[in-house]
Amino acid sequence: MKIALIGYGKMGKAIEEIAVAKGHEIVLKIDAYNLDEFTAENLAKADVAIEFTSPHSAVENIKKCISFGVPVVSGSTGWLKQWDEVKGFVEEHNGALLYASNYSIGVNIFFELNRLLAKMMSAHTGYNVALEEIHHTEKKDAPSGTAITLAEGVMEFVKAKKQWVNHISDNEDDLEIISERIDPAPGTHKIKYHSSIDDIEIIHTAHNRKGFAGGAVLAAEYIVGKRGIFSMKEVLGL
User: Fold this and answer.
1) Is 135 a catalytic residue?
2) Rounded mean pLDDT for each run of 10 residues along the chain, 238 residues in total
3) Fewest beta carbons less than 10 Å away: which of 37, 64, 192, 199?
C-alpha cells in the first residue's frame, strides 16, 4: 500500500515507522514547510492519505485529498463543528473518509466499555458522573476529541446530563470534562461515577503513540478501495 502522510509531526513519524515495518511505502510527506508539494500529481502516487494536522487545517486537507480522488484517514481533532460540511463534500465527490477521535485499538474498546457502563448506570440516579483527561502540553485542543467521544457515549444513556462543559460546574445538567496538560503524558482518560456510598471508575492510559499510529495504519488498510464514511467500529468489527 502506498501512503501519503498529511502532517509529519510526532504522530506522522510514528505512523511512518509502523507502516514501513508492515511493508507499506510512504510516497508523500506533507508538513508546513513543503505545502507546494501537496498537489494532485503527487497525491496520485498514493492509495490512501493519513491526515494528522491541526484543527485549523484539517478540513481543507481532507477536502483536498477527496477532490483529488484519494481516500482519507483523518485523526485531527477540534474541527467537528464542520462535520456535516465535510460529510456532504465526501458524499458529493463519491469519496472515502475514515474519521476517529482516537485510533488506538484499546481506546476504541474503551469507548464501547464506556457506553456499556453508562447504560448500566442510567437507572441509578444516586451517582454523578464526570470525566478527566490528561495530555501533553503540545495538545492543541481541549477537551480532547477522545474525551468528547466519551462524553457523548455517557450522554447517550445518562439523560440527566444535557451537555458537556470543559470546567467545574454547579449545574447538574452539565457533564464536566476536566482537562490537564502535563508532559510527557501521551493520554489518560477517566470516567468516574461518584455517590455518597462508593465510586465506580474506568481508566484508559496510553503509554506511547504506538497504539494510535498502529490503529491509523490498520484504518488505512481497511479503507483502500471503499467509498463512504467509516469509523473504527467498522475496522474493528465492534
Assistant:
1) yes
2) 95 95 97 94 97 93 97 92 96 97 90 97 95 87 88 97 96 96 89 97 90 93 96 90
3) 199
Complete DSSP assignment for 77-142:
-S-GGGHHHHHHHHHHTT-EEEE-S---HHHHHHHHHHHHHHHHHTT-TT-EEEEEEEE-TT--SS
**Number of separate domains in the chain:** 2
Active site residue 167: no
Q: Which domain holds residue 138?
A: 105-205
Please report the pLDDT score of residue 211 as a whole number.
85
Does 96 lie in the same domain as 115? no
- Which is the catalytic residue, given 64, 139, 189, 204? 139
* 12 and 86 inside one domain: yes
Q: Are residues 99 and 152 in the same domain?
A: no
Choose the catalytic residue: 24, 63, 135, 189. Answer: 135
